[in-house]
Amino acid sequence: MTETEVFAKIAQLLSERFDTDVNKITMETNFQDDLQADSIDMVEFELELEDDFGEEIPDEEAATIQTVGQAVKYITAHQK
After folding, report:
1. Confidence bin at 70 (pLDDT 50/70/90)
2. CB 79 within 8 Å of CB 54
3. Confidence grade of residue 74 (pLDDT, cut at 50, 70, 90)
4. Rg of the chain's alpha carbons, rounded to an integer?
5. CA distance readout (Å), 76 to 20, 33, 37, 39, 50
6. Which residues form the catalytic set?
7. pLDDT(16) > 90
8. Higher per-residue pLDDT: 38 or 79
9. Suppose 5 and one of 1, 51, 54, 65 were both cysteines; which one would form an S-S bond, judging by CB atoms 3.0 to 4.6 Å apart?
10. What is the biggest distance separating any 2 CA atoms in the chain, rounded to whole angstroms?
11. Are 32 and 65 in contact, with CB atoms under 8 Å apart?
12. How far apart are CA 73 and CA 1, in angstroms?
């Protein structure tokens, strides 16, 4: 998948999970500041990413992902 395709899929997942307009989600969207995601939300979202993209995200790496752009770059870089 291209970075654009990964972004579109992540934006759609976030839109559904956080009940927000998909068009308001950008690469700079911060999970905690912009979407008010708490730690439980982040763990659930991490698991959803792992299921949808077939890639396990180690907890220590997941903790460093704060924005949509960081998630997109991680998924893109670790695709099989």
Report:
1. very high
2. no
3. very high
4. 11
5. 24, 24, 23, 23, 13
6. 38
7. yes
8. 38
9. 1
10. 31
11. no
12. 12
Contact 10, 76 (CB under 8 A): no
Q: Which structure tokens are listed for 43?
A: 């763990």
Closest CA to 63 of 48, 49, 42, 32: 42
Q: Are 80 and 54 in contact, with CB atoms under 8 Å apart?
A: yes
CA nearest to 43, candidates 62, 15, 69: 62
**Residues 19, 24, 29, 32, CA torsion sign:** negative
What are the backbone angles phi and psi of residue 67, rounded to the nearest 5°? -125, 165
The number of CA neighbours under 13 Å toward the Cβ of 1 is 21
pLDDT at 79: 84
pTM value is 0.90
Structure token digits, residue 47: 């698991």
